[in-house]
Structure formats: structure tokens, C-alpha cells
Specification:
The complex is a heterodimer of chains A (about 325) and B (about 180). By secondary structure, chain A is an alpha+beta fold. Chain A has helices spanning about 10-20, 35-40, 75-80, 80-85, 90-95, 100-105, 110, 165-170, 185-190, 220, 270-280, 285-290, 305-325, and strands at about 5-10, 25, 45-50, 60, 65-70, 175-180, 185, 210-215, 225-230, 240-245, 255-260, 270. In chain A, about 30% of the residues lie in helices and about 15% in strands. In chain A, the strands form 3 sheets. Chain A has a 5-stranded antiparallel β-sheet. A 4-stranded antiparallel β-sheet of chain A has the order 9-10-11-12, with helices on both faces. In chain A, helix 5 (about 90-95) runs antiparallel to helix 8 (about 165-170) and helix 12 (about 285-290) runs antiparallel to helix 13 (about 305-325). Chain B is globular. Chain B has a 5-stranded mixed β-sheet, with helices on both faces. Chain B has 2 domains: about 30-105, Ubiquitin-like (UB roll) (Roll); about 115-180, Orthogonal Bundle (DNA polymerase, domain 1). Classes of the chains: A alpha+beta (about 325), B alpha+beta (about 180). The interface between A and B is large, with 45 and 47 residues.
């Protein structure tokens, strides 16, 4: 790890001023930044420690809305009784992510800034070619070992999977990220690689996430996060789904449904085609399974990751049917 | 570190911290760490992790370096009573926080913590390298209320790997200690 200057910000304004400097990077929980600095991927000239800023870790939840401060820890949000009650998918996405130690360190704002786990991206010594690290150099994953790589939202420049869980639940429920001067949908905050794989977030120098906001809804209250992975715990998703369901008074017609998937796309992926196919329809297994297939419209595999095209629709269907069983 | 916070970038674009810097090379930080109730003064490079500060500077070698990448849990310590990974924590970042390591777990008269005693009784290790991290993690796991069943123990202890594969005995030790600490 290359050395850097260390500065501690005591206010959001101070952190923003410092973040605008060339080579400055913000440090919150450290689980991404220190890890990537050790890998030789992140080489900050100055690390701005924002973890001591007061007042940014509040978790304020009502039936109408959740406002979660950028410095709230993943573990605290996961265990929050109001979050569990009004946004169960958010709590489930959080406690199924990483490990207890990492969840005690990682913050909600930092979680959104998490980088891909593409092994080529993380290994600059052995794989100097990577469009995320060196724009224009190429992609080592294409033609390489691709079992964990994305099948949705890829480009010729990059097929790296977005690894997080929380953001999958956030895009399903139309959450927004508060950058101080502007707010934007979490869905728009994340960028597909296109020709600019190095840009993963719509965030500018001098900007900092201060909070996320999640609108309450009946679908958010009846929601779940289903994560399928190679081992039972402490692993990234092979495929995951955040699903919310609201039924009509008859108890079987779908009034509102939200579906987003993780582990299969280059960014948190909202599955609107699945939602549209099911709205107004009766909740039955055959229709749910058929509609869930629509998530993979436009999917492109690279051989070893082809299983994700079959897996993700099954994960969605299982999550919807599980929610349907709960009254 | 000397208490310095950022208000505006200096005119030459280089922040200074601790000792004077010419902007070309990072400076040394003078920090104080509170570990197991004792205050320690240290001069360190900003990049020094809590793990390296504990082991290489303070000679508290009970906290182990396994992967050094946040994947194995061998370096688990408590900061303000919560379990975290010392390998991904900058020492400078936890200045002013209360840090507990495996050396601070037993009573001063040498009486072992209930979790330490349970690990001995259940033979919850082979080589023992992961054990300090397992124990620090287990103490927090029980305190969090995440040791209610074997399934819950396995889920909430998943961040501590044991390459010897002593997992069944580790789960038994956590179960036993959780029961003792509840009663």
C-alpha cells in the first residue's frame, strides 16, 4: 500500500472541500478503500477520514419514508426494528451481506461506493489490462474466467458484476441518494459500463453522499431479499432478488410488484418487464415463472457465467412465491 | 494526531497534518490509542493499520494476521465494544475510540472470560491461529444477541474462517458460553 496523507474532516463542508482535491478519497468504514489500496488498485494521495463527522449516522424510519444517514453502519440498519418492519428486504439484504465484522465497519454511503469484485480489476500486477483501471486498455475478463461475471448491462469494454446487496433492494423501492446539492434515484446513481467502464457512479469531485431516502409503500412492507450463492454465508450472490408485493383485496390479484436482481448485472438491475407482466394478474406459480424469465431479455453470456441466465429467473420466482405464501 | 480539521484547502493545494510537510511526501502522525484501558502514544505513517500498530509497534501479538485483506477474521478486535477487522482499519482512524484485544479479555487476576473457558472445554481449535479472532468475534456475537441457535451462531460467526475445520467445536463453545452468560 502506497502511503498517503491523512486528514480528518469534522463537517460535511470540510469533507466536500477536501474531496475536490486531485487524488483525494473519502474514508468511511474502510472496507473498500483500504482493501483496494492493499491490492494496488486505489492509490489515494490524501485520505479524508469522514468517520468522525457527527450527526450523519441517524436512522429515521416511518411508514412513509426511511432516511438513513450516510455514516450509519450496515449492522445497525439491518437490526433496526422499524427498518425490519417497514422495509424487510432492506434489512435482509444487509444482514446477508459480508460478515458481522465488516457490517460493523461499513457505512451505508460507503456501501453504495463499493467497487466490483472482478478478480481482474483487483489484480493490477498480473492483469494490467482493465478498462475500469486504465481506460482504453481493454478487458482481461472477456476471454478469461467468467463464472462470476455479468450477463446484463455489459459492454465490449467491461463485464464486471456489481457485487452489492443493499442497492438491489434500494432500486426495487425507488430509493434516492442525497448528494447535498442534488438528489438522484439510486438506479441512476449507478452507471452501466458502456464505453466508460471507469465511471461506476454519477458522482462528481467535491460531492459526498449524505443520506439515502426510501419511500414507504405496501410493496416495501411486504418484501424480501433472496440471495443464492456458492456457500451458505459470507459470499457474494450468484444471483439475488429483491421483491415487494401488494395484492388486491381479493388476496390473489397483484396490485403492485417490485423486482430487482443482483449478482448478474453490471449495476443494480430493476426488472420492469417482470413487474409489468404481473401487474393486475393473479398470483399463480405458472404466471410468476413465465414472467420471471423476462428479466433476462438481452442477456449476453461469456460461457462460464451462462448458468446465471437460468438461475436468476428461478430466484425471482422463488422470492415472489415465498412472499405470496405470507399473509 | 494533533487535532486538526479541514475547513478550506490551503492555497498551495497541499494539506498538512501533524508535522510539517512539503506536500511531496506523507507526514508522520502522532496519535494516541486506548487499548484494553491503557493509553499508548505512537508516531506512525498514515497507512499503518490498527493490526500492524498492535502487532509490530505495541507487541500485542494476540491479534493475528491471516489474510490481511478482510476475508478471514483472524484480526478481529472490538472498537467501542463492536467487533471489527483490524486489518482494514487505519490506526489513525480509531484514535479516541476504546479498543479491546484478546489480551484485554480475561480478568486482571487471570480468570478467563466465559468464551475463552468454553473454547478450552470444548477443544474448539487445532492449530489455534484463528482462535483469538474466533473468541473476540464470539464475545460480540453473544452480546449482540445473535447466538440463539446453532444456525444463528453459524451465520453470525461466518466471518471467522478456520482452516483446520474445527467449526463443530467452535459452535459448541459459543453455544455453551452463550448459555452461561445468559444465566
Amino acid at each position: 500500500m502506497r502511503d498517503f496523507s491523512y486528514l480528518r474532516a469534522d463537517s460535511v463542508e470540510a469533507a466536500r472541500n477536501a474531496a475536490a482535491l486531485p487524488g483525494a478519497m473519502l474514508l468511511a468504514g474502510g472496507t473498500t478503500l483500504i482493501d483496494l489500496a492493499k491490492c494496488g488498485v486505489a492509490e489515494p494521495a490524501t485520505v479524508i477520514d469522514i468517520s468522525h463527522i457527527e450527526g450523519l449516522n441517524a436512522i429515521d424510519v416511518t411508514a412513509d419514508r426511511a432516511v438513513i444517514g450516510a455514516l450509519a453502519k450496515m449492522s445497525h440498519v439491518a437490526d433496526n426494528a422499524e427498518v425490519k418492519s417497514h422495509f424487510p428486504a432492506v434489512s435482509e439484504a444487509l444482514w446477508q451481506a459480508a460478515s458481522a465484522q465488516l457490517r460493523n465497519m461499513a457505512t451505508i454511503g460507503g456501501n453504495l461506493m463499493q467497487r466490483t469484485r472482478c478478480p481482474y480489476f483487483r489484480d493490477p500486477q498480473n492483469f494490467p489490462v482493465c478498462n475500469k483501471r486504465e481506460p482504453g486498455s481493454g478487458c482481461s475478463a472477456i476471454g478469461g474466467v467468467t463464472r462470476g461475471h455479468a450477463v446484463l448491462g455489459t459492454s465490449e469494454a467491461c463485464i464486471a458484476t456489481y457485487p452489492g446487496d443493499l442497492a438491489i433492494a434500494l432500486v426495487a423501492f425507488d430509493a434516492e441518494v442525497d448528494l447535498g446539492e442534488r438528489k438522484l434515484k439510486v438506479e441512476d446513481f449507478f452507471l452501466a459500463p458502456g464505453a466508460t467502464a471507469e465511471r461506476e457512479h454519477d458522482i462528481r469531485p467535491g460531492e459526498m453522499i449524505t443520506a439515502i431516502e426510501i419511500p414507504g409503500s405496501a410493496a416495501a412492507r411486504r418484501s424480501t431479499y433472496l440471495k443464492v450463492r456458492d456457500r451458505q454465508s459470507y459470499e457474494f450472490a450468484a444471483a439475488s432478488a429483491a421483491v415487494g408485493l401488494e395484492l388486491e383485496g381479493d388476496g390473489r390479484t397483484i396490485r403492485d410488484i417490485r423486482v430487482a436482481v443482483g449478482g448478474v448485472a453490471t449495476k443494480p438491475w430493476r426488472a420492469r418487464a417482470v413487474e409489468e407482466a404481473l401487474k393486475g394478474k393473479p398470483l399463480d406459480e405458472a404466471s410468476v415463472r413465465k414472467a420471471s424469465e423476462l428479466v433476462m431479455e438481452g442477456a449476453v453470456d461469456h460461457g462460464a457465467n451462462r448458468y446465471k441466465i437460468a438461475l436468476a429467473p428461478r430466484v425471482i420466482a422463488r422470492a415472489i412465491l415465498k412472499l405470496g405464501e405470507t399473509a | 494526531m494533533t487535532s486538526q480539521t479541514i475547513i478550506d484547502p490551503p492555497e498551495d493545494g497541499h494539506f498538512r497534518n501533524g508535522k510539517a510537510s512539503n506536500g511531496a511526501s506523507p507526514t508522520t502522525l502522532s496519535i494516541h490509542l486506548t487499548i484494553n484501558g491503557r493509553d499508548h502514544a505512537l508516531d506512525i505513517e498514515p497507512r499503518v493499520t490498527l493490526l500492524d500498530a498492535l502487532r509490530e509497534r505495541l507487541h500485542l501479538t494476540g491479534t493475528k494476521k491471516g489474510c490481511d485483506q478482510g476475508q478471514c477474521g483472524a484480526c478481529t478486535v472490538h472498537v467501542e465494544g463492536e467487533r471489527v477487522l483490524a486489518c482494514l482499519t487505519l490506526a489513525a482512524q480509531v484514535e479516541g475510540r476504546s479498543i479491546t484485544t484478546i489480551e484485554g479479555l480475561a480478568d486482571e487476576d487471570g480468570t478467563l472470560h466465559a468464551v475463552q473457558a468454553a473454547f478450552l472445554e470444548q477443544d474448539a481449535f487445532q492449530c489455534g491461529y484463528c482462535t483469538p479472532g474466533q473468541i473476540m468475534s464470539a464475545v460480540a456475537c453473544i452480546r449482540e444477541g445473535h447466538a440463539g441457535s446453532d444456525e444463528e451462531i453459524r451465520e453470525y460467526m461466518a466471518g471467522n474462517l478456520c482452516r483446520c475445520g474445527a467449526y463443530p467445536h467452535i459452535v459448541a463453545a459459543v453455544r455453551q458460553a452463550a448459555r452461561e452468560l445468559r444465566s
